[in-house]
């Protein structure tokens, strides 16, 4: 198979929409297709997937060599088997989804978590290249997170997805909520999460709660509403996100890219996120220790970005020689917003993953 001229059918499965895309040689064509995720039952949903891919395949004149797409977990992604899904209740038992599509289209099918493919797309074509173009230091790893109907994540290590031994790496939504340790952090870092935070601050019934984008618009004073409640809700959202990312980055030591529908509200939460990541913990003797060994910078803030890019070095002497060597004085990471848009990043990540797999095969 010739992989220098590769075409792949991709899909980003969201809680609201199914976004089908055709990617050829790393470029997303204009032949995208949008279908509603809501379905009557499993059969209806599977027919919708098949119809969407058939539509794209026709528009691409049958060029596609593979299907590669994102799907919510839990799942055995390596085997293409989707498990019992909370957000898609008609998946109430294991479904061999990859095999269904392979039987229909007679081409390889690859499935991954949306957070994984989002992270891979941003690592190859989005935030990470943007950082490396400007930085004296090369960054090779990335943690990607998505904020929307749910809270997802993905890790790219040296250009490749880190999926773990059970296709369960970067399941960041399973971290506990620092506001209530009996809950998942997804109960805050999601659409329902920001709405519940606003309802609590505003003292209103949930049925009267605005949509998240309107809560953002209230917070920035663009539309009328309880501005104080909206700003406090997004501040809490940002701080909980910061605590969660501090835990994750302590393990990954990576820059972070944020996508998903709620990422558009970054002006009212991102700095709180970074501030929390750079906070301190108390020692038993009353002293302080930095929350993370690295220091996080807000890539979307010009001053913070410039400070991140200032890499101070120090020369030290090598004993028993006339040599000196340099090293970076500070350990830095950057936290930024998707440069591609979530669906585009997922599509490009799906293409990159399929290309790697086809080359190996």
Q: For the residues shown, what is the average pLDDT?
A: 93
CATH architecture of the largest domain: 2-Layer Sandwich
Percent in strands: 15-25%
Oligomeric nature of the chains: single chain
3D shape: globular
Largest sheet: 6 strands, mixed
Number of helices: 10
Order of helices and strands: EEEEHEEEHEHHEEEEEHHHEHEEEHEEEH
**Helix percent band:** 25-40%
Q: Could you walk me through the main structural features you see in this protein, from its secondary elements to its overall organization?
A:
The chain has helices at 42-59, 97-105, 114-125, 127-134, 191-202, 212-219, 227-252, 270-277, 302-309, 342-360, and strands spanning 7-13, 17-24, 27-28, 33-36, 66-70, 75-76, 81-82, 109-112, 141-147, 151-157, 160-161, 176-177, 180-184, 255-259, 280-282, 288-290, 295-298, 313-317, 324-328, 332-337. The chain has ten helices and 20 strands. Helix content is 35%, strand content 24%. The longest helix has 26 residues, at 227-252. A hairpin with a 2-residue loop joins strand 12 and strand 13 (180-184). It folds into two domains: 7-113, 2-Layer Sandwich (Nucleotidyltransferase, domain 5); 127-319 and 322-339, Nucleotidyltransferase, domain 5 (2-Layer Sandwich). The strands form six sheets. Strands 1, 2, 3, 4, 5 and 8 form a six-stranded mixed β-sheet that branches. It has a six-stranded mixed β-sheet with strand order 11-10-9-14-20-17, sandwiched between helices. The protein is globular. With 361 residues, it is α/β, with parallel strands linked by helices.
């Amino acid at each position: 198979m010739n992989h220098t001229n590769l075409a792949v059918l991709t899909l980003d499965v969201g809680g609201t929409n199914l976004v089908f895309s055709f990617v050829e040689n790393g470029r997303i064509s204009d032949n995208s297709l949008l279908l509603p995720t809501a379905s009557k039952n499993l059969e209806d949903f599977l027919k919708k997937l098949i119809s969407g891919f058939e539509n794209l395949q026709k528009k691409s004149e049958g060029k596609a060599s593979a299907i590669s797409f994102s799907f919510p977990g839990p799942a055995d992604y390596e085997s293409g088997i989707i498990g019992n899904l909370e957000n898609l209740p008609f998946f109430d038992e294991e479904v061999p989804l990859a095999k269904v599509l392979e039987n229909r289209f007679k081409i390889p099918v690859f499935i991954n978590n949306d957070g994984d493919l989002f992270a891979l797309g941003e690592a190859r074509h989005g935030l990470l290249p943007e950082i490396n173009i400007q930085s004296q230091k090369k960054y090779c790893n990335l943690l990607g997170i998505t904020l929307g109907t749910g809270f997802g994540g993905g890790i790219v290590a040296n250009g490749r997805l880190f999926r773990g031994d059970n296709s369960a790496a970067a399941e960041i939504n399973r971290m506990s909520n620092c506001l209530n340790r009996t809950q998942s952090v997804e109960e805050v870092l999601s659409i329902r999460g920001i709405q519940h935070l606003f309802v609590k601050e505003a003292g209103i019934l949930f049925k009267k709660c605005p949509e998240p984008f309107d809560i953002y618009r209230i917070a920035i004073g663009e539309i009328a509403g309880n501005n104080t409640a909206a700003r406090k809700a997004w501040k809490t959202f940002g701080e909980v996100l910061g605590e969660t990312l501090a835990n994750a980055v302590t393990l990954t030591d990576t820059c972070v890219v944020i996508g998903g529908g709620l990422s558009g509200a970054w002006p009212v939460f991102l700095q709180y996120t970074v501030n929390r990541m750079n906070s301190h913990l108390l020692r038993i003797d009353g002293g302080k220790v930095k929350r993370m060994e690295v220091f996080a910078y807000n890539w979307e803030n010009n001053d913070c970005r410039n400070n991140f890019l200032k890499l101070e070095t120090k020369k030290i002497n090598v004993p028993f020689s006339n040599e000196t060597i340099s090293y970076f004085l500070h350990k830095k990471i950057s936290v930024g917003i998707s440069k591609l848009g979530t669906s585009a990043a997922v599509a490009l990540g799906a293409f990159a993953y399929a290309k790697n797999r086809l080359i190996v095969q």
